[in-house]
Amino acid sequence: MFTGIIQEIGHVKRVEARNGKVLTVSSSAVLDQLKIGDSISINGACQTATQLDKDSFTFYSSPETLSLTNLNQLKVGDPVNLERPLSLNGLLDGHLVQGHVDGTGVIQRLQRGEGATDLHIACPKDLLKYMIHKGSIAIDGVSLTISQLYEDSFLLTVIPITFEQTVFQYQKVGDSVNIEVDLFAKYVEKLLMGSGSEGHLTKDFLSEHGFIH
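Now predict its structure.
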């Protein structure tokens, strides 16, 4: 489990095709106490460290993971967001992030302002159904709040410190981003599917069960 608070930007050192891909990422902060077999979030995707060096770590990404994430597009030199798992005695500064990417979106517009940067991201409708205005979402592993929802996209407002400490500073229009929707939205859907409502969220149901007032 992660928080969506990025600890470091790493850079891809090596990419090998091996029934999936084996990638090596340069890093420093996340290497502290990292052991072989430990989990680590790479652009929001939970992966397992398989080899450690003094200034890098290696992980294997399966074909399924590559098909669902933007890890398949990584090449030598590319920056990636890195986060170690949340410890039980740690602070939850973002929101609960599993590291299980649900799909990808595409940056449609990136507009930098003095106070913040607006990111407009096109997204599949099967993911949009889990999103609400002011709800939590993880983009490339970064915990963010949805500013606005549209029919086939959503808007994020990224504060300067988050922009400067994540790969957002390197991204451009047309880039693919990993999306993990809010964990609790999936549980609500599962409950609804067992309620005889065929998985359709309604305002009446949410109000009846105390989700909204």
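Residues 8-83 form a domain with the Elongation Factor Tu (Ef-tu); domain 3 fold (CATH 2.40.30.20).
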